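Reading a protein record of the kind used here takes only a little practice. The record below shows the convention in full.

——
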Amino acid sequence: MIQKGVLIPHDDCVIRVLPYADGIVRITAGPSDGPEPVSYSVTAPIPADPVFAVETGETETAVTAGCLTVTVGEDCVTVAADGKRLTRASRFRLEPYEIRRQTGGNVTFRQTVDGVRASAEGGDETFIRVSNHGAVTFDFTEDETLFGLGSHEEGYANLRGQFVPLYQENMRIAVPVFVSTKGYAVLVNCASVMTFDATDHRRGKFFLDSVDAVDFWVLYGGDFAGVCRALKALTGTTPLLPKWAFGYVQSKERYASQKELIEIGRRYRAEGIPIDVLVQDWLYWDDGMWGNKHFNKERYPDPAALTEELHRMDLKLMVSIWPNLSGESEDRVEMREAGHLLGDGSTVNAFDEAARALYWKQANEGLFRYDIDGWWCDSSEPFDAVWGGKERDPLPERMARSVGEFKKYLDDGILNVYSLHHSMGMYENQRKCSEKRVVNLTRSGFSGQHRYGTVVWSGDCSANWETLRKQVRIVQNYVATGEAYWNSDIGSFFAAGGYEWFRDGDYPRGSDDEGYRELYTRWLQFAAFTPMMRSHGTNTPREVWRFGERGTPYRDAIEKAIRLRYALLPYLYSVHAAVTFDGTMPVTPLALAYPKDREAAKASGEYLWGPSLLVCPVTDPGAEDMTVYLPAGGWYDYETEAFHEGGRYVKIPVPIDKIPLFVKAGAILPVAPPVQSTADLDGREYELRIYAGADGQFTLYDDGGLDYGYEKGAYSAVTYAYHDADGTLSETAAGQPDWRHPVTVRIVGRK
């Protein structure tokens, strides 16, 4: 039953106000005799003795806890921070309905562009349980901009005015968190399909397909960093990925043998191009055994020798695994006999702990025992009904078909959290048997999935400039939800067009096309400033040498961007350590960093990378110059070190080898010497570049980079503070000296 907190009768239900911490409050509307809603996102326990004050009037009740006051009136619930209204929730609705499902139908398997898929048709309709459709509306003020709700192919610049479908599909990741420029966020407790309708600019309505109650948290942090810390307190810690995951990742669809992987690795090393990871995509298994987690013995005769040779070259191996199985493979037979497949006879029941354990056992015995380094858990939204045909259905029909396929096998109330449970199984079971840090590249996500070492990507998009523009906005929305790790297929998955609607690339000649080379180069420059820098796709190979000889513009620009990524790895790794220890995000939309600056709200094609770098990706073909917005303060061009006063637009040249990158005055930026992999960074001397014009502070972090020793204090964290008035630098060291780097200091811009 709904207990704890303040219970206030409201129409035909009860509204519960439950403070969690200063700045965090939970609001629940449901039947007084209903169950306590379960959350898959939130790990913070229900407070045993929440502290609050209650003031009751004739028509409203006010609950104050810390800085927040929640006022429950006759027709709405208002949340204020320090007396200023944040948001107002109203139009709570719960409507009972029966969940019914077809069972016992015939299962057919089909080959799709996204692998072998199973689908059940026919059968008897079975009553499952009674649930509720739910709804709640949030009112917004005129001056606020909203971000979040996940990774969606539309690439929203602002959630205001949008209709956002919240379900899981290739190119769509639903995360029920939105963040406002007013310094608050809302996390909606719903694991079913949802929609967010903010086409009325004044408000946004959530429709919740299956819930026990309308349930949400309001988190106030004062600014975006504060909101992120509150999300960490509520949803748990993001583990730090291994250092190699921040290096350059080379993939394609697909490397076909052990021999090819080794040859690719050797060529990268011979050409002196920095790289850390090679990725083995699908079909490394025996023919007809989709998803079997075992290497084909003819093409991969000695997997242990494969990883040994790659490791000798300081290269890591990531391997693709799938939750759906076909054929009479040993993995599928074992799962089926144990009763761990869902109703399609193909998909592993990730909601069952024993099924997750068996899935890990298979992955361990078939792959992990050969010392592979990372997982690519593909297709973690495992059901598909729309990736086929010449024409794409309109969104309402597409959503209905996709959701209908999920509902054949899963309870309505958990449709959006398959990936979260699948990721949990991989993370928890690997940690039981290994100290190797978990990396799970996966295509679906949810609020709280960050706890399991996941990196999501934006799905199988197509090569054109509009898609690239959208990626720049997608990363901002996804990371705004408190889920730090996102990336995209550099150059898109589909380079070329084709019969089906999803084959929509503009470049049938792939890397031999000058137009594709330009798009790929600009995409790779953008990817250098995302949490993972990963090249992948079909139709054309993606290795660096496919884009020309050295001395040609695209090849040289690509190498330059990769080397820039490695030069900035000390900064990047420190920024992501702050994700783990502090909860702050690596990417900040400009509007969230400068909420009172209306021009910043318009600059959706720019973002902050960590606290000090302003990234302005080039997303127009043939661009020779570009106008960018610099917020208030001083900014230095990273490449030329030219100074620009902020609060205005500036026009700069953007030759093909340049991505506009600006450093904030007061920044302390650690820069690495040239290296071939992240392993080369150990013990190296860094240049500490200090950008004059303001006081600044930065914590340079490092550790062993491979295991979880940092959880026990095995790391170095040196906080440098720059005092601009006299040009002096002080430092405070924490942790252990083993991973501390010697530094040389250079002040940029000081006269």
Summary: The mean pLDDT is 96.
